Amino acid sequence: MTKRFQESNKIIQLWRYRWYILIPILWIWYSTVMHIKVFYDEVVDGELIHTDKYNIMRGKTLWEILKGKMQFKMNWYHTHEEVWDKMKSKLKRK
């Protein structure tokens, strides 16, 4: 089992950063050639109806999705405690 990104040494982290090289290439690919369509669904009389209306994923949203996809490949995730501590620190600032 591989260590998560944050617990790896600097050489392994540097090697895993190679996945970030693909983001601009994939962003261009999905923005121009292979569009990611997000279909809208509607609720009519309590039933979920699939419609033909859609939005094409582009720009910053597509970039963030691709970044998350690459971070998943890098085994980059946060533990429950890390997330909870981050939330507590943000609440204290307000």
Explain briefly what this protein structure is.
With 94 residues, the protein is of the alpha+beta class. It has helices spanning 10-16, 22-33, 59-73, 80-93; strands spanning 37-44, 47-56. The model has no long low-confidence stretch (mean pLDDT 86).
Give your account of this protein's structure.
- The protein contains 4 helices and 2 strands.
- The chain is of the alpha+beta class and 94 residues long.
- It has one domain.
- It has a two-stranded antiparallel sheet.
- The N and C termini lie far apart (40 Å).
- The mean pLDDT is 86.
Extended strand count: 2
Strand content: 15-25%
What's the Cα radius of gyration?
A: 19 Å
The major β-sheet equals: 2 strands, antiparallel
Provide the fold topology.
Layout: H1 10-16, H2 22-33, E1 37-44, E2 47-56, H3 59-73, H4 80-93
Antiparallel strand pairs: 1-2
Provide key terms for this protein:
94 residues, two-stranded antiparallel ribbon
